[in-house]
């Protein structure tokens, strides 16, 4: 039986039932005959009626449309067989081929022409499935560029349990422990010093060598799977991968290979022995052994070489893993797997990305904001003093803003050094960062060609300088809020958002206070308050009397709405000026 996948982009909405039989897009062009950048993979080579088989279509290049079916491997031109279940309904949809009700969902296609690099679906084997089934795919890179009926793996009916050489046991107790790490076995642990025997939040990988065999233990809290990989560098791709997938309470332990940042291709060879697993309290544990050399499966790495270790986890559905939502734990250095036991250290946050975040924070939340404050509110200060021939405020402003541009440029380079290319999974953050970098470079360029202070065109520079500077600062702050959620930084959420928000609010309040002070609003308010207090005290003193009875008739003859100045004047004429004044000042001081 064959399972075909067709990418028909003639219909951007993926309603390509007309292409079900031939799997040929109606684009009036011929299919591409060069090597295809796309591959089909499955998670099992054998099946029984009713089984769910995960199918993944991925590639090193983007594609826009697709159509997936399953067909009899001995009759690739025959009808589609079985039915599909969607993993991501936003990018895939089920089709009914040949309008036969029993074949509802017998094909899967795209929902739009949005670019993608991977699609995953679940194929359910029917009760009347033929002995062998093959998956086929027609992939459309763009309207007239497509590959027709790309052949996928062939699966056959039979026992889906592991081959006899891979004896699997269910571990009744938790035998994994960090005791012996660095002595009898090598360990990679996160958090550092945790013990999987007592800590359910502990990610644990250990391995030890005995003769020509290496035994591995893997444990971690996960909803769907835990996995580790042997890698020649600190990047996913070209990795020897091992998966422990929880499928409704049963764990399948599989060896796989990742050719790139795509779905792992499960090995059809049985290279794992002494397999065991356990699921308890949300923790998946598995163990297995494999030979140092596996000539029967050449994609497996030799364990006599040194590798970086990756530990990842995530969700799974129908035994199909989804992309990990958290940055993998990566060992800080590579190690020979069969080498002396040691305790490895690792991190989920690359050092370069930490530098990137720290420098951006210093640039915009400290240097940039302080430089703007100097230019906006400190020009009148130190009027007679200069620094290297220029006013102090200008030199400090120029120094801090130059530092801001320099730190931004250095920090801007780090993500590209780390990833080696543009990040397609970082959301809007890299776009905002590029905008900030462009605006930051515009500032010194404009400053270098600014008109003289008495020029008639100076106002143009002033407005541009002010506008570009404020835009850069606002976009930088917005970018930081998106940046602190990036996987590569691994910052504790949500309190990091609260801290950044509090700092932004503090900066806004500070600028508001300085703005009010600049326009003498605070000074005027202070004088008003002092006058009100002085009036109240003067009136209270006058009402209390000065101790001389002859003053009372004078005051009583005064109209009710006479001001406190009148009282003060009357008292002054009676020789009470210094007494009243001194008393009022004493009250104000107290």
UniProtKB/TrEMBL annotation:
Obligatory cofactor(s): heme b
Pfam families linked: DOMON, Reeler
Membrane topology of the entry: Multi-pass membrane protein
Domain Cytochrome b561 as annotated: residue spans: 318-526
Domain Reelin intervals: 1-171
Keyword Transmembrane helix: yes
Coiled coil start-end: none
Subcellular location: Membrane
TM spans (from-to): 355-378, 399-418, 430-449, 461-483, 495-514, 526-546
InterPro entries the UniProt entry points to: Cyt_b561/ferric_Rdtase_TM, DOMON_domain, Ferric-chelate_Red/DefProt, Reeler_dom, Reeler_sf
Keyword Transmembrane helix annotated: yes
Main subcellular location: membrane
Domain DOMON: 201-314
Keyword set, alphabetical order: Electron transport, Glycoprotein, Iron, Membrane, Transmembrane, Transmembrane helix, Transport
Superkingdom, taxonomy of origin: Eukaryota
GO CC list: membrane
Family the entry assigns: Belongs to the FRRS1 family.
Protein name: Ferric-chelate reductase 1a
Species of provenance: Cyprinus carpio
